[in-house]
Every structure is written in C-alpha cells, then in structure tokens.
Amino acid sequence: MRTLTGLPTARGFAIGPVFIYRGDGDMPVPEYVVEPGREEYERLRLRRARTEAARDLEGLIAVLSERSGKDEAKIFEGHLMILQDPMLAKEVVRRVTESRLNAESAVKQTVSEMRERFSRMNDPYFRERVRDLDDVERRLLKVLVGFASNPHLELKAPAIVVADDLTPSETVQLPRDLVLGFATNGGSTTSHVALLARAMGIPAVTGLGSITSAVRAGETVLLDGTSGTVTVSPDREAILRFHDLVERQRELSEEVSVASRRPSGTLRSGGDVPLFANVHPGVPFDGIRGLGARGIGLYRSEYLWLNAEREPTEDEQASAYREAADFAATLSPGGSVTIRALDIGGDKIFSLLSRQDAPRREPNPFLGNRSIRYLLANPAVFRTQLRAVLRASAAGNVRLMYPMVSCVEELKASARILADVRSELDREGVAYDRNMKVGTMIEVPAAAVNADAFASLADFFSIGTNDLIQYTMAADRGNDAVASLYQPTNPAVLKLMRGVIAAAKRRGISVGVCGESAADPLVGVLWAAMGADHLSMSATYIPVISKLLSRLTRDDLDGYLSAVEAMGDGATGREIMDCCRRWMLAHIPDLDNIAL
Ligand code: PEP
Ligand code: MG
Prior knowledge:
By secondary structure, this protein is an alpha/beta fold. Among the domains are: 2-23 and 152-240, Phosphohistidine domain (Glucose Oxidase, domain 1); 28-146, PtsI, HPr-binding domain (Enzyme I, Chain A, domain 2, Orthogonal Bundle), CATH 1.10.274.10. 50% of the residues lie in helices and 13% in strands. It has 24 helices and 16 strands. It has helices at residues 39-68, 70-83, 86-99, 103-120, 124-145, 151-154, 168-173, 192-200, 211-214, 236-259, 314-331, 351-355, 372-377, 379-393, 408-428, 445-449, 451-455, 465-473, 491-507, 521-530, 542-550, 554-565, 573-587, 591-594; strands spanning 2-5, 7-10, 13-21, 159-163, 179-184, 204-206, 220-224, 229-232, 275-279, 296-300, 337-340, 398-402, 438-442, 460-463, 510-513, 534-538. The strands form 2 sheets. It has an 8-stranded mixed sheet. A hairpin with a 4-residue loop joins strand 7 and strand 8 (229-232). Helix 1 (39-68) packs antiparallel against helix 2 (70-83), helix 10 (236-259) packs across helix 21 (542-550) and helix 20 crosses helix 22 (554-565). It starts with a strand and ends with a helix. Phosphoenolpyruvate is lined by residues 195, 298, 300, 343, 443, 464-467, 514-515. Residues 443, 464, 466-467 line the site of magnesium ion.
C-alpha cells in the first residue's frame, strides 16, 4: 500500500480500478528510415492504423450524436473525411515506398506539407481545416505509437481516471457515469478541469506529480478528494477507514438537507450571507438540487461553446439562459442566475474559436486576447450573446456580468454596445427586463486597485478570486509547480479583497465572491467576515460553508476578521491560514468533521 499526496481538488471519496488516460501532449513519436525490405510492413501498419482510427472516429460520432446532438459530432465527421481522403493515403504511402520512412515519419511529413499548403491558401475554408489536420495527425500517430485513443471508447467500466493532465474538452468528453474520480500529475485546485470535476460532483486530486507512473491500469486505488490523497493497493484497514469517511459524509449531507429548510448561509445570530452555485452549462443542473444554493451565482457561458462545431445561435443561447433562469427560480423565491459573458481564452481555448479570428496559439494565453477583450474585438459574437441574455431576462431573474475587465474603458465600451443592443430590441419590439442588473467581475489586480472607479459603472461586483490570486501572485492557477505561491490569504490578496469590498460598500452596490476560494471553509468564511454580501461556489461545497456559517454569529465573524488583521502585512500566507485554522478550531472544534 502506498499513499500519494496531491492537492484536494474536488471533495468526495472514490474507490475503484485505475484507468490511465494518456493525453498526446508528450507522446514520443519515433522517426527513422527503415531497413530495405521493411517497407511493406510499414505500409501494413499504416493501413491498420487508418482502419483503427476510422473505427474510433465512427464510435465517437455515434456516441456524440446520441448524447449531444448532431453538431458536436460534425467536427469528427470532418476528421473522418480527411482520414479517408485517398490523396492523403497515397502521399503517405509514397513516402514510405520512395524514402523508406517509418509510418510515423511519413504521416508527420505528409501532414506538415499539407498544413503549409492549407495555411497559405486564401480560402478561409482551407485555412480552418489546418486544425482538423492536426487532430487527424495526432489520432493516426496515437494508434501507430500505441497510445490509448479516445477516452470515450476506452473507458468501458467505472474507474478512477488517472492522467498527466486533462483539458476541459477532454474532461467533458469522458463518459460521466463511468468516471468515479480524477487523479492527475499536474493541475491545481482552481484549474478549469478542477472546477468541472466539482461541477460534475466527481472527486478529484490534482498535482500528484507522478501518479501516472506510480500506478498500473486496473490497480485499485482509494481517492480522497477532501484531503488530497490517493492510496494505491489499499489494505483492509485503509478500506474500512475509507468507508467510515464515506458514511460520515453521507450523514453530513443528510443533516444539511434537514438544515436546508433554513436558507443557506444563515448565521447563528440571524442575518445571512446567501450561498449560490457556480454552474457549467452541459453539466446537468440536477446535481445542484438539495444542496442549499439560492440561485446560480456564476453561469460560465463559455461552456456552451466547448466542443461546438459552430457558434451557438442567438436562439440556442436564449433558450439555454432561460433554462438556467427557470432552474434558478426553483432554488429560492426570486432565485436569480448571473450569466457571465463569454470568458474565452486562457486555458479555455476551444476549437471553434481558434478556427475563427482569435489567434491560434498565444505565447501567453492567460495574459492574451481573452474574455472581454475577445468580445470587444468581436462585436458580432458579443452582440449575439447580449441579445440572447436580454431576451432570457424577459421571463426570468437574469443578471449579466463581464469577465476579466481590467480598465474602465472596457466597461464603458461594453455599456455602449449593450445600450445599442437594447435599442435594437426595442425597435424590433422584443421584450426584455429593462432593470436587468449588469455587473462586473473583479479578477484583475488593476480593477481591484481601482475598484472605486469601477463601482460607479456597475450594478454589482463579483470577485473572481481564481484569477485575482493568480494575477496578484503571478502564479499560474493551473500549475502545481507554483501551487505554494497561489495563496488566497497572502496579505496582498487580502488587501485587495478588503479594498474591493469597501469600494462596493461606499458606492452602495452588492459584492459577492464567485471564485472557488469561497468554498474553502477557512477562506470562504473570511470573505463573509470581510463583508461579502454573498458567496458562489461549486454546489457540492455549499453544505460545508452553510453549516459553518450556521454555527457563527456576526460578532464571531468580526472576531475572526480581527484575528486575521492582527497578523499584519508581514505575515506569510501560510501563517495567516494557520491563524484562521486556530481561530476556527477554537470556535468550531469539530471543524474537520464538517469539512469532509
Ligand atoms: C475566477 O476567476 O475566480 C472565476 C470565477 O472565473 P473562472 O474560474 O471561470 O476564471
Ligand atoms: Mg476568472
């Protein structure tokens, strides 16, 4: 039995066999000239690889058409056409025959030449096909090199998915009902994959360093997403302890569902800090019910674009937003949904947008053309989304917010476009809520420092600590190598948080926190103590935070904040975290039982 420790990324426990998912990022591709006489063998490998890759694609198309409709499947139908193109096959075979290249080199050279040719063409259709060529090349090489191919086709029974890392699009392609848990070498607690795992209610441990080489496929592991550990080949005692934890977590959920007759976030002294859910469209809303969310505090609209073959239309978006608003209304009286405008870019590079006018690969994507910057540069995309959000607001309690805003010009430009879209709807006689609240995320230090100016241009603030911490500390939120610098309680972060909350109060606008730090028992309560009006998080964490708040009074919160403030600016993030923990244990001795 061995235990590996990583980052506690999505709470919950799982036990099951390992399924090793190999991404192709670091796939070694052998390239050499074959001995005379081996050409026929290489041609045979090629034929087999094409057949197998085509079979994988056909299976994937079938699964996707059934699960998500025809549109997602169309991308892969295009890949199948390229794969079966006789010209491609002929060129590859010619290289094997004439230059005695092994199959892998022949594929790489042929595709590289085609890529060059396509990217020089004036016809945008061919330029867009370059990315498809990349995918087909990877698929063929994976089969030739012997890597696992599509996760859909490989994962056939419930298992714990072990991977180096997973992209958001790989994560959503995995069959949800068969994934018991995620364990990855890289990643962090706030990478988008981590957030997806939370939204799906699947336990996850990231930042394990070398789990892919520490386990074998099929081996049994215990995954504890709450403490961030993975135990390989557990003994009887570990399994019993594990079942005990599962049982305790079940009891906590039951207690919470009894307590949920009181609105979430209610303090012992009365008064409350309402709790909301962060959602990813595409992940069913059902899992949220019964956890205490009073509405949807963050609707990550960009997931409507994920794996999409084309831009979602205005009607499709409007109906998705309406569905979210209808669902939010069932969570509490007047329950609202806060729709965040398309937050594309960073690690959320979706194939559709990279085919269009966004730069294909940015050297520094987290500082690049993302979110509001992309929207302002692509007004047609922005306007379509605004129309859809406004239309949804006619019937439901909808709020809109802008992501990644770093300067007031962006807010002003967005307001001008929104005003114009409203006039357009007026002219067309289309109904919308004229009082729809329009807010902004505060997740860039420049906006936090200058929050007063932003507060006069917004109806509300929603602080995105996932990004705010990353940009303040200059520590990539998805990189486990710098996870120790990603400190929610670093005095610099706390100073920004205090400043933003104070600016909102001065201006009389509401301020919430929708970064995942709100789900951390010590940190979420600290934001409440600082004066956040509400918190929004992955729904599976709401019961824990709600339970903690129900044990505290407003005076307790003031005391908690004073204890943290007494640490001063010279304290380290870790020391402040330790101070939070000491204070909390003194007031809630069974903290560790609650925070399971
Ligand atoms: C954040 O940055 O805190 C946030 C909520 O946005 P996202 O995690 O989607 O970047
Ligand atoms: Mg963000």
